[in-house]
Amino acid sequence: MIVFHNHWDHLLAEEFQKEYYRKLREFLVEEYRTKVIYPSMYDIFKALILTDYEDVKVVILGQDPYHGPGQAHGLCFSVPEGISLPPSLQNIYKEIENDLQIKMNPSGDLTCWAKEGVLLLNTVLTVRANQANSHHGKGWELFTDKIIELLNAREKPIVFILWGNNAKAKIEKIDNPHHLVLTAPHPSPLSAYYGFFGCRHFSKTNNFLKSMNIPPINWQN
Predict the structure, then answer these.
(1) Mean pLDDT of 192-204
(2) Is 55 a catalytic residue?
(3) What is the dihedral angle through the alpha carbons of 130, 133, 134, 138, rounded to the nearest 10 degrees?
(4) What pTM was estimated for this model as a whole?
(5) Nearest Cα to Cα of residue 180 among 204, 197, 164, 215
């Protein structure tokens, strides 16, 4: 039984009973039993636990968790305190510093964003060690589709930040004119110079929130 202790409990209750999720759960039980899987099974749903449905101001969509030891802890792009910044997160910090003219701290833990209303959601919530995208197509995409659909249905405005092709694939789920959708290439070193740097998504997000009389995000970690 998965318990979030917030509005996600009743919003997602039916999803956990569906056939695709039952198959996904069976797959995950075997994966965690026989292989090294990230994040810890206790952190799979951390993003939903930390950011309640009613509190979401911004959604940042990632692909799947980091697949190196000690990195993934249930929040996309985030790593626990004391872990070196992965290249994508380094590039995110560079963009924030250039966009907002602030200095980021060396910590890669983005829990403070989650508590401010930034839902740090991967499109796939688990991964095998050292095998990026290894849990793609197992059912997580259907689960995160449902989360996006629920948020899209909300009347209170949300900023959806979609970086990279996996995230952009969700754009068809977001058609509510109350919301703002921002897209850019992934912050990975392979694509950051093709439009991620200079996207100014952080100032654009805060300008939109303020225009809707919603308190902006403090992006300084």
Answers:
(1) 97
(2) no
(3) 150
(4) 0.97
(5) 204
